[in-house]
Amino acid sequence: MYCFDTKIRVRYGETDRMGYLYYGNYPEYFEVARTEMIRTLGMNYREMEDQGIILPVRSLYIDYQQPALYDEVLVVRSCLKSMPEVKLDIDYEILNERNLLLCRGNTVLVFVDAKTRKLRRAPEFFLEAVRAYF
Amino acid sequence: MYCFDTKIRVRYGETDRMGYLYYGNYPEYFEVARTEMIRTLGMNYREMEDQGIILPVRSLYIDYQQPALYDEVLVVRSCLKSMPEVKLDIDYEILNERNLLLCRGNTVLVFVDAKTRKLRRAPEFFLEAVRAYF
Amino acid sequence: MYCFDTKIRVRYGETDRMGYLYYGNYPEYFEVARTEMIRTLGMNYREMEDQGIILPVRSLYIDYQQPALYDEVLVVRSCLKSMPEVKLDIDYEILNERNLLLCRGNTVLVFVDAKTRKLRRAPEFFLEAVRAYF
Amino acid sequence: MYCFDTKIRVRYGETDRMGYLYYGNYPEYFEVARTEMIRTLGMNYREMEDQGIILPVRSLYIDYQQPALYDEVLVVRSCLKSMPEVKLDIDYEILNERNLLLCRGNTVLVFVDAKTRKLRRAPEFFLEAVRAYF
Fold first, then answer.
1. d(CA A83, CA A89)
2. Chain D closest CA to C108's CA: distance in Å?
3. How far apart (Å, rounded) are the C-alpha atoms in residues B32 and C71?
4. Which of A15, A46, A87, B35 makes an SS bond possible with D71, Cβ 3.0 to 4.6 Å?
5. What is the pLDDT of residues B71-104, one digit of tens each?
6. How confident is the model at residue B106, as a pLDDT?
7. H-type helices in A8-73, by residue range?
8. Which long-range contacts (CB under 8 A, 24 or more apart) does B124-132 make?
9. How many CA atoms lie within 13 A of D12 on its CB side?
């Protein structure tokens, strides 16, 4: 398993009239967190796309437990659960400044050839980069 | 069961650099669809909030199958699955103009007292409105 | 001058903790309105992009006068002010259900060749479509 | 004058199908930048709201010059131009990693009493905090 913590401050425009972080903004927080996690592995999501590999999301799950509030600095923990042979299976937790668990989540992304739009295996450099953790 | 179809056209700002509807925008489409579903039952989500009942989302699930494209008019089908005694359990399907299934989803919302922020039962007028369908 | 009115209902996720439509969501409403205006002229923004012409925004102005509220159906009026030889100069007004003026705005978009990313003149079919109005 | 630089990385969900930061996401970047600027002055926008003062935006102007790209770390410079007696008049510039100017902008915010929703003067502690710079 490989985990990484990213900090994100809740923007005003991301709140809703309940005064909470809108439930629809959590997937973007997950995106930011996994992008940073991948960066710490020495890879770059943008470069991967430039090389013709895209990573569409296949499934998303979020279990909302406590609201996130405006201007709070949240910790978004993302954990790569297994060797990403054909998919990226990532678990998330969001904690607030008082270390309270706000939500758990999961996304599954697949490797797709940008031209053919067909499924493919993870590129070798990607597998190489994460091998040490599994 | 009670189902309702809402049409939503994909906005430019909702697409991403893959050219697809960004995965993080689907929850807002679900929100629009369930709001319209509730309206067809003779109720109004805004008025419910004005009466001191809020409906935070407790869980979200999305299974993405095909991408949604810019400017497409999507059908977002939302189905209330059971009597909403203490929660709203809603299934969703999104179909494109060629009737292709793009995704399936689910949200669970709970009834919360806006002042105390504690769980509560659905208001009687809400149960009354949906009783015929279950 | 050519004007067209588009109706947009304010989504929950578009509000902020003031309970208003977040100021940063107005540009997307303008985008929806001008896309529909262009459609009524017999053209399609998506097809224009598919033909290699993109229309990036060069400037945006918004004068916010009254807040827009959750669930209100707004009228977004967009008016093409002059022959779009090299740019689309569009004025906007947003009115609420009681016909109260909420804001005025303006955007200027330019025609750009998608490959070279250089400025270009409007395509002839575009000029043809709007000529009757100027 | 008082200026402050905030860094913001462009998220995937903030790009559009042109591959650029969507024009409608710039206002939120301005919001983040001015919030951080106010924080460096020893104040806190959230606390101000909790004390019953809200700061709705009255006008927005953006002059887009070059596109911002996915994953770039942008510098958003915000400059408070004058003593904020009754309004916050702020200029912005966004620069990319190669120090290229991407856009200029301006917002005017006004101080409003959250209860009465009427205009009011800036609170004394706010004026005190910025006096040294004007």
1. 9
2. 10
3. 10
4. A46
5. 999 999 999 999 999 999 999 999 999 999 999 9
6. 98
7. 26-40, 45-50
8. B125/B43, B126/B43, B126/B48, B126/B84, B127/B83, B127/B84, B127/B85, B129/B41, B129/B42, B129/B43, B130/B2, B130/B41, B130/B80, B130/B83, B130/B84, B131/B83
9. 26
Instruction: Give the model confidence (pLDDT) of D86-122 as tens digits.
Output: 999 999 999 999 999 999 999 999 999 999 999 999 9
Confidence at residue D123, expressed as pLDDT on a 0 to 100 scale: 92
pLDDT value for A55 = 94
CATH of residue C62's domain is 3.10.129.10
CB C9 within 8 A of CB C71: yes
Q: Give contacts of C21 with chain A, Cβ < 8 Å.
A: none
Amino acid found at B7:
K
Among chain A, residues having any CB pair with chain D shorter than 8 Å are 9, 11-13, 27-28, 31-32, 35, 44-46, 70-71
Q: How far apart are CA A120 and CA A107, in angstroms?
A: 18
Interface of chain D against chain C, CB under 8 Å?
17-18, 20, 23-28, 31, 49, 54, 56-64, 67
pLDDT (tens digit per residue) in A7-63: 999 999 999 998 999 999 999 999 999 999 999 999 898 889 988 999 999 999 999
> In this complex, which of C18, C25, C61 lies closest to D61 when CB atoms are compared?
C61
The residue with tokens 């970047």 is D29
B111 Cα distance to chain centroid: 15
pLDDT in tens, A9-18: 999 999 999 8
Q: How far is CA A109 from CA A30, A80, A91, D83, in A?
A: 12, 11, 12, 50
Integer Cα distance of A61 and A26 in angstroms = 10
Measured between beta carbons, the chain B residues lying within 8 angstroms of A62 are 59-61
Name which of A62, A74, A65 is nearest A98 in CA terms: A74
Average pLDDT, chain A: 95
- The answer to whether residue D78 is domain-embedded is yes
Instruction: Give the count of Cβ contacts less than 8 A between chain C and D.
Output: 61
**Which domain range does residue C33 map to?**
2-133
Size of interface A-B (CB pairs under 8 A): 60
Chain-centre distance of CA C66, in angstroms?
19
Of D11, D35, D45, the CB nearest to A31: D11
C48: tokens are 């224009």
Minimal Cβ distance to A28: which of B24, B60, B64: B24
pLDDT < 50 positions in chain C? none
Residue environment code for A105-133, b if the CB has 16+ CB neighbours within 10 A, otherwise e: bbbbbbbbeeeeeeeeebeeebeebbeee
* Cβ proximity of C103 and C59 under 8 Å: no
- In the DSSP assignment, the letter for residue D133 is G
Domain count, chain A: 1
Chain A CB contacts of B24 below 8 Å: 24-25, 27-28, 31
Decide the pairing of beta strands C73-80 and C87-95.
antiparallel
